[in-house]
Amino acid sequence: MKFLLILSFAILLSACAAPQFNASPLKYSGSQIVVIKDNDTREGFLQSMKSWLAQNKYDFAVSEDGSKHDHKKVTLEYEGHWGWDLALYLKDAEIKAYSDGQRIGEASYKVPYTANPNKFSVASERIASMMDLLFGKKSVQEANSEIRSSKK
After folding, report:
1. What CA–CA distances, in Å, run from 152 to 64, 113, 125?
2. Closest CA to 17 of 151, 112, 141
3. CATH architecture of 19-149
4. Are strands 32-36 and 20-24 parallel, antiparallel or unpaired?
5. DSSP label at residue 26
6. Residue 117 per-residue DSSP state
7. DSSP 3-state helix, strand, coil percentages of the chain (rounded to 5)?
8. For residue range 77-121, what is the model confidence (pLDDT) as tens digits?
9. What are the structural domain ranges in the chain?
């Protein structure tokens, strides 16, 4: 009986797990960025990244999927996946930054398999938070705290 109670409690806790960000911010003081388009990711992801870069006054260009990195500029690669659970939501995503052929930063977002309603959000806001994390404008703790207090 105790085992069943403990198992039920563990399942209940896992069902309440919130979405989570992780990041290793890049150390970058320049402003030239190349974003490599990912044809397998919804177009809105790229639009959100472009909007963030423009709002933050970065000089950027978009290259086609499969393009080689420009070693003189920071290159961003991204990937996003959506899920369906009564509504469409951003399930997991990652943005990686490269310079001189080396990864210099990354940000990720993941929604565990959960009943937590915080997974239903405005994807562009989550992508903007990933960019804030990647460029060191926000800490992982701040971003995760915002998710947990989100009512969206």
Report:
1. 33, 18, 10
2. 112
3. 2-Layer Sandwich (3.30)
4. unpaired
5. -
6. G
7. 35, 30, 35
8. 999 998 888 778 788 999 999 998 899 999 999 987 666 666 677
9. 19-149
This prediction has a pTM of: 0.81
35-52 b/e with 16+ CB inside 10 Å = b?
bbbbeebeeebbebbeeb
Q: Which two tokens stand for residue 26?
A: 């890049």
CB 93 within 8 A of CB 45: yes
* Tokens (6 digits) for 49: 């990244």
pLDDT digits (tens, 9 = 90+) for 126-150: 999 999 999 999 999 998 888 777 6
- What DSSP line would sit under 41-99, residue for residue? S-HHHHHHHHHHHHHTT-EEEEE-TTPPP-TTSEEEEEEEEEEESSSEEEEEEEEEEEE
Q: Are 126 and 109 in contact (CB under 8 A)?
A: yes
